[in-house]
Amino acid sequence: MLSIENLHATVAGKPILKGLSLTVPAGEVHAIMGPNGAGKSTLAYALGGRPGYEITDGAVSFDDADLLGMEPHERAARGLFLGFQYPVEIPGVSYLQFLRESLNAQRRSRSEAELSGAEFIRLAREQAGALGMDVDMLKRPVNVGFSGGEKKRAEMVQMGIMNPKLAILDETDSGLDIDALRAVGAGINRIMRAPDKSVLLITHYQRLLDYVRPDKVHVLSAGRIVRSGGPELAHELEREGYAEVA
């Protein structure tokens, strides 16, 4: 599903990723953990195609295609979803309208029929209900006035509507209380646990992994993957810290 080979990336001319290699097969959830400044968010943004994150070397294959050769909207249409640590607010833009336009833009790019207004509302209501969210909240401007937990739930609704092949989730657990964490974890499992889908889950802490059990855990330090293991590695990191295992 996702293959990264010797990836180097800079931000504002500063090298951040320094030869990162990683493979995430279809049907698996992989967690990336590591200290602040290790390059975790840089990896997410570089894969998503965010401006200012310059790839200087390496290759990335996604769904048997050259990811780095695609524009950000092409990556999304291909099936890549990027979840943000801090979802942005967009005043004046209805969340429902934003989601409908986004979904139909992707469907057009794949030569699929657009969803009608009624079809989209049914889909949005189904996805919101599965996450314990009133669909009427999505009539508000994008994330405006939402709590941290509501923003993350809404992002999971967005992921459910877009139905991606690969979800890259950057510290989705940031700022969540226990109830919101449980709901978000259940959403990830419901939407993305499938033989033809994969998840790259970036987190500092073990707690989200209690709800979304990863197939593998990788330690990212100083721009490289320095250690990989099973779910037990996350517990070791929780006990010992990064200095002891990197």
Walkthrough of the structure:
Belongs to the ABC transporter superfamily. Ycf16 family. This is Fe-S cluster assembly ATPase SufC. The chain is of the alpha/beta class and 246 residues long. It has a single domain (2-86, 146-240), classed as Rossmann fold (3-Layer(aba) Sandwich). It is 34% helix and 29% strand. The chain has 7 helices and 12 strands. It has a 6-stranded mixed sheet, sandwiched between helices. The chain has a 4-stranded antiparallel sheet with strand order 2-1-4-5. A hairpin with a 2-residue loop joins strand 1 and strand 2 (14-24). Helix 2 crosses helix 3 and helix 4 (117-130) packs across helix 5. The longest helix has 15 residues, at 95-109. The radius of gyration is 18 Å and the shape is globular. The protein starts with a strand and ends in a 6-residue tail after the last helix.
List the helices and strands and how they pair.
Elements: E1 2-11, E2 14-24, E3 29-33, H1 40-48, E4 53-62, E5 65-66, H2 72-78, E6 80-83, E7 90-94, H3 95-109, H4 117-130, E8 141-142, H5 148-162, E9 166-170, H6 178-192, E10 198-202, E11 216-221, E12 224-229, H7 232-240
Parallel strand pairs: 3-10, 3-11, 6-9, 9-10
Antiparallel strand pairs: 1-2, 1-4, 4-5, 7-8, 11-12
